[in-house]
UniProtKB/TrEMBL annotation:
Gene3D superfamilies to which the protein is assigned, alphabetical: SP0830-like domains
Protein name (database record): DUF1697 domain-containing protein
InterPro entries associated with the record: DUF1697
Length: 171
């Protein structure tokens, strides 16, 4: 069995895409996932599966579409990939709530600044299947737009670190 983390896109953020975490856990169990645990109400779930990443993602997306009546994007990573994101954080000396990991399943540009607009004092670095973004003044007033935001989903490093702990504990 592999320990995985699934990150749902646009769930319980800004009043859109409401999905109770107990329902998410039930949907995961119905999709054949084991030892399911959710973390905070923004679409984070940790679980075991003997199936490959693509199968897990498809099974979750199908269940979520049936429940929500629309497509909900799901990013799936193994426990070791999540731990690797924590270890590779280039902004580890900055507050964890000001550093985001933007997880994507599409190819990342060689230059993380490609297509970026509205940048002021934010910083962006490439990571493994993710971009790291440091928001020195927080996200509330930023005008930063990153093309990968359209299909990816971001979590602050405090959340990523907690998900890494939870996934590691599953073994």
């Amino acid at each position: 069995m592999t320990a995985y983390v699934a990150l749902l896109r646009a769930v319980n953020v800004g009043g859109t895409g409401k999905l109770p975490m107990t329902t998410l856990a039930e949907l995961c169990t119905a999709a054949g996932l084991a030892r399911v645990q959710t973390y905070i109400a923004s679409g984070n779930v940790v679980f075991h599966s003997d199936r490959p990443e693509e199968h897990v993602r498809t099974a979750l997306e199908d269940r979520l579409q049936d429940y929500c009546g629309k497509r909900v994007g799901v990013i799936v990573r193994t426990a070791s990939e999540i731990a690797d994101i924590v270890a590779r954080n280039p902004f580890r000396d900055m507050p964890g709530n000001r550093v985001m990991a933007l997880f994507v399943d599409t190819p990342l540009p060689a230059d993380p600044m490609e297509g970026v607009t509205g940048m002021k004092d934010e910083q962006i670095r490439l990571g493994p299947r993710a971009l790291f973004v440091f928001y020195p003044n927080g996200m509330a007033t930023t005008r930063l737009r990153i093309p990968s935001e359209k299909t990816g989903t971001a979590r602050n490093m405090n959340t990523v670190a907690r998900l890494a702990e939870m996934a590691a504990a599953l073994g």
